[in-house]
Amino acid sequence: MTDETSSAAPRRRRADAERNRQALLEAARAALADGAAPFSLEAVARAAGVGIGTLYRNFPTKESLVAAVYEAQVTELIDEAGRLLDRLPPGEALGEWLRRFAHLAATKRGMLDALRRGVLESVQQDDVAGRRGRLAAAIAPILDAGARDGSLRGDVQAEDVVVLAAGALMPVEVDAARVERLLGLVTDALRPA
């Protein structure tokens, strides 16, 4: 085998290995959302139907597993923006996307509780600008469509909406009624006067 051959593109995961990884992510997500019991890697492995060794091969630390769950949720939120705009008028699509963003914020607080506070924050800081940019790019078409149909202000930048929503929802523990009030304030700020 030559050096050229060994430096080729990374190997794709086997189908069963990818299924195990996805099962672990789903089990971890459920455990983090539950919040009733302390977050346990052993319980996640059991719920995923795999051994603890399989968990550690995929996620060598609790922090890496929680960070992967968070990143998967961010990616889902990004992907959902276009689907919402396909199904709903722009103002409604943005409102629904913001509700899902609020859910992500609540999940993040649960993740912070599952770990030492600084760990997820430090992992997240590695790509905070990139993640914010990806979220902004995802909702830009909603904002553009809303500006065209008059349901949303035309002078709003997508990244400002992400920062506004994060500032309103991420730093504090809030109940469902308060989340709805905060989302109402955010969406009111985005409507034309």
Describe this structure in words.
With 193 residues, this protein is mainly alpha-helical. It folds into 2 domains: 13-60, Orthogonal Bundle (Arc Repressor Mutant, subunit A), CATH 1.10.10; 62-193, Tetracycline Repressor, domain 2 (Orthogonal Bundle). It is built from 10 helices and no strands. Helix 5 (62-87) runs antiparallel to helix 6 and helix 6 crosses helix 7 (117-125). The relative contact order is 0.10. Residues 1-6 have low confidence and may be disordered.
Give a short summary of the structure.
Residues 40-59 bind DNA. The chain is mainly alpha-helical.
Please describe the topology of this protein:
Elements: H1 3-6, H2 15-34, H3 41-48, H4 52-58, H5 62-87, H6 90-114, H7 117-125, H8 128-149, H9 158-169, H10 176-190
Helix pairs in contact: 2-3, 2-5, 5-6, 5-8, 6-7, 6-8, 6-10, 8-9, 9-10
